[in-house]
Prior knowledge:
The protein is α+β, with helices and mostly antiparallel strands and 465 residues long. It folds into five domains: 2-50; 72-77 and 372-463, conserved putative lor/sdh protein from methanococcus maripaludis s2 fold (Beta Barrel); 83-93 and 283-369, Efflux pump adaptor protein, beta barrel domain (Elongation Factor Tu (Ef-tu), domain 3, Beta Barrel); 95-129 and 248-278, CATH 2.40.50.100; 131-246, Helix Hairpins (Orthogonal Bundle), CATH 1.10.287.620. The chain has five helices and 26 strands. The strands form seven sheets. It has a six-stranded antiparallel beta barrel with strand order 4-13-16-15-14-17. Helix 3 (131-187) packs antiparallel against helix 4 (193-246). The longest helix has 57 residues, at 131-187. The protein is elongated and about 205 Å long. The model is unreliable at 1-20 and 442-465 (pLDDT under 50).
Amino acid sequence: MLDRADKRAEIETGDDSQAVVPARRGLFRPIAQFALMALVLAGGWAGMQYLVSTRADPAPKPFTPLVYTVETATANRADNRPVIRLYGQVDTGRSVDLRVAVSGDVVEIHPDLVAGRRVEAGAVLLKVDPFLYEGAVVEARANLDSMRAAIDEIDARLAAEREQLEGAEAQLALASSDLERALSLASSGALTDKQVDDRRLILSQREQAVSQRRNNILIAEAQRAQQEANLLRLEWKLREAERRLSDTVVTAPFDAIISEESIEAGRSVNANEAVASIYDDTALEARFTLTNAQYGRMATDADPLLGRAVEVTWSVGGADYTWPATIDRIGARVAAERGGVEVFASISEANHPVRLRPGAFVALTVPDRNWRSTFRLPETAIRDSDHVFVVVDGKLERRDVRLIAWDGEDAIVDGNLDGGDEVLATRLTEASEGVLVRAPTAAVLPDGDAVPEQPAADGAADSGQ
Length: 465
């Protein structure tokens, strides 16, 4: 117990001799670490200086220009006609709304009078009850026969009046001769004045009879003219009645497809009521729009726009079917809402398992203007739409061109080119004047077969010696 107390008293009093040793040890440790670090850095610097001083100088490598492997296209001057790919719609070239010209009850309907069915020309599609119209024909024919009989009666009366006129004129001539003789005898005293007056009276009566016959003939002729006018009216009435009777039957005017129908047997219809719509599936046409620029080019071409052959393609059932067509007319007005001119092409028949239908959305291939003495180059050969590069003695030379039209992946151009020029067709980013290029070469396999070398990718270069 006493020993522990003595040690505690020594610590509390702080003996200086024991505290100095730990302080000296803490100061020496950082100095040793710094000296070691300096020694390592000095050794590394000395080793680097030794390596630099003892290395061999490399031999200078000669400069080798880059040569790009590219594809080229030969420029040939020729007549080029690009094609324009447009879209349009199929319309009916000939369609008719069938209407009933008379009113009545429908008593018969063709079994194929259903939308989508085909009917032949002249087929009776429906029939209206003809009873009243047959009666009208009978009545009109009876009135016409009665009028003809009346005219025949007038003709008979005219014939009788003319015969009686001839007799009256003969009697008038006799009375006139008798009066002349009586006057001659009266001058010699053989006849009295009374006898002469009697003959004058007879002559006057004969003259009146002739005048009466002539008047009767004129009246009869006027009556006949009036009846002839009535005859024409009744003949027209008969034709009208027969026409209305024939209108009770509605027939197909041509071979056609029923597009719409709205009629049933037993239903009453009114005059001029539409009962069906039909169209001729052999007279379809494609309607499409040319822009003002396209129409202007084609309209000024040496080859006329009308009569130009086009192709119509309908994509249906996962397959494309093509029909030949011919441009036969141009819209009367500019279609402002479509931004161009409407053009119509008549579609010809083609042997396909599907038949083209009105309303189908189709693609059209239309030949554009024929550009004479121009060049056809790949799209990749045209740069900034105004120049190309030509390979001359393994170097690129710039040639200015004028872009005329596009034709799919080809461009129609004209400009500073000559026939036979090899035009750069590879999309080379580094293309400029004087760049070295070469065509793909053929590598030889160990067995002696030659295979073409793949062209370098865009911007890749070969180092030549």
